[in-house]
Design a protein that fits this description.
Number of domains: 1
Radius of gyration: 13 Å
Structural class: alpha+beta
Shape: globular
CATH architecture: Orthogonal Bundle
Number of strands: 3
Mean pLDDT: 91
Distance between the termini: 12 Å
Helix content: 40-55%
CATH class: Mainly Alpha
């Protein structure tokens, strides 16, 4: 299963919704280079490129399926 989407900027609530991860888990994975880094949109705003998040999600799906023998 693969998700495809046009490039856009996702804010934190969107990233949480798409990935199913909590805010703290997302930031922890970013800090550990296990999730795409956000881009700065302004002084107090940041977001993630949708294609990077979807790419990460697709790689998680692939790894999960290969580990389970699907």
């Amino acid at each position: 299963m693969s998700f495809k989407r046009e490039r856009s900027i996702l804010r934190m609530k969107d990233v949480e919704k798409v990935t199913g991860l909590s805010r703290s888990t997302i930031y922890q994975k970013v800090a550990n280079d296990q999730f795409p880094k956000q881009i700065k949109l302004g002084e107090r705003a940041a977001g993630w490129l949708s294609d990077e998040v979807i790419g990460w999600l697709n790689s998680q799906i692939t790894m999960s399926r290969s580990e389970q023998g699907f």
